[in-house]
Amino acid sequence: MLGRLAALWGFVGVFLFLGSAIVKLSLIAGQIQIEELSIWQWIVMCAWICFMAYYEGYQGFQKGFSPRVASRIHYLLLNSNPIRILLAPLFCLGFFDAERKRIVFIVCLTAVIMLIVQLVKYMPMPWRGIMDVGVVVGLSWGLTSVVLFTAKAFFTKNFNFPAGVPE
Q1: How far apart are CA 136 and CA 57, in angstroms?
Q2: pLDDT score for 166
Q3: Is 164 part of a structural domain of the chain?
Q4: Is residue 137 part of a domain?
Q5: Rounded Cα distance, 102 and 58, in Å
Q6: CB neighbours (10 Å) of residue 151?
Q7: How far is it, in rounded angstroms, from Cα 161 to Cα 59?
Q8: What is the predicted pLDDT for the residue at 167?
Q9: Which residues form the domain of 96?
Q10: How many domains does the chain have?
Q11: Quick check: is 141 in a domain?
Q12: CB contact set of 155 (below 8 Å; sequence gap of 6+)
């Protein structure tokens, strides 16, 4: 029972973390006055969307982050303890009970993302909106892949992506 609770809390926490970022950035991206964009801004926006879809969505999320998160969510089902239950979303994201290299990577990536977020806040419109559109595409791809990989981890027998938990 506690394992199910931990797995559910891990999934919901990751879902809300990514989903809230998508909603917040979508509101900002929605402020773009499409009819006022120059040809150059359209080209940049289209290129940025393609870049973020491929590198953030496909390479970052679908090929690495999402299957690992799904595997860690599934791992919680049978391997929960009080700390993992309480901090299940952070466990699923890899902030603890992971290989040292993975924890360092996650912490550094989080710090870099937070720095970029702070810098992008100072960009004028429409450039900030253009950046946010691309990020929304990448995050949406990522959230979708987390949901699909989690379903695969729980409902198929051929999911064997490592959870990355040190033994």
Answers
A1: 10
A2: 81
A3: no
A4: yes
A5: 19
A6: 12
A7: 16
A8: 72
A9: 2-30+38-155
A10: 1
A11: yes
A12: none
| C-alpha closest to that of 15 among 54, 79, 69 | 69
How far apart (Å, rounded) are the C-alpha atoms in residues 81 and 66? 23
Question: How far apart, in whole angstroms, are the C-alpha atoms of residue 98 and residue 85?
Answer: 16
Over the chain (167 residues), the average pLDDT of each successive run of 10 is 93 98 96 92 97 97 96 93 96 94 95 94 95 97 97 89 84
pLDDT of residue 158: 83
> Quick one: CA dihedral 61, 65, 67, 69, positive or negative?
negative
CB neighbour list of residue 160: distance below 8 Å, 6 or more residues apart: none
DSSP H helices in the chain: 2-29, 39-52, 66-78, 82-86, 88-93, 100-120, 127-155
For residue 164, what pLDDT is reported? 86
Please answer whether residues 61 and 142 qualify as being in contact, where contact means their C-beta atoms are separated by less than 8 angstroms: yes
- 90 within some domain: yes
- Which pair of structure tokens corresponds to residue 78? 């049978």
Q: Report the SS3 class of residue 33.
A: coil
* 155's tokens: 């409902």
